[in-house]
Amino acid sequence: MLIMSKKSFQFDHPAGQEPVVVVRAHEFVEVPEWVKQSSMFKLASQAGDVTVTETKQAVKDAETGNKTKSAAQLKAEEKALKEAEEKAKAAAEAGQEQ
User: Fold this and answer.
1) Is 0.70 surpassed by the pTM of this model?
2) What pLDDT sits at residue 62?
3) Backbone angles phi, psi at 71, to 5 degrees
């Protein structure tokens, strides 16, 4: 798995069976899949200090600091926009009837 880190971190294997993985700040590094299970990775990813970069777009977003939106986030934004448009249309129609 390829990650980009904004800070330096040391990831310890959850069961202590593998050597630690050290990642320096502002680097793209290939790390073992078990790193996702480490406590430090979970905390760092929640804080936005570590980004998994599996695609070229994700690498570009990590470099520029852009956050990619999940499909659920995009769908929720689309739904909210549609509801706002429907309310505006209903309000305009109500205003024309008076």
Assistant:
1) no
2) 66
3) -60, -35
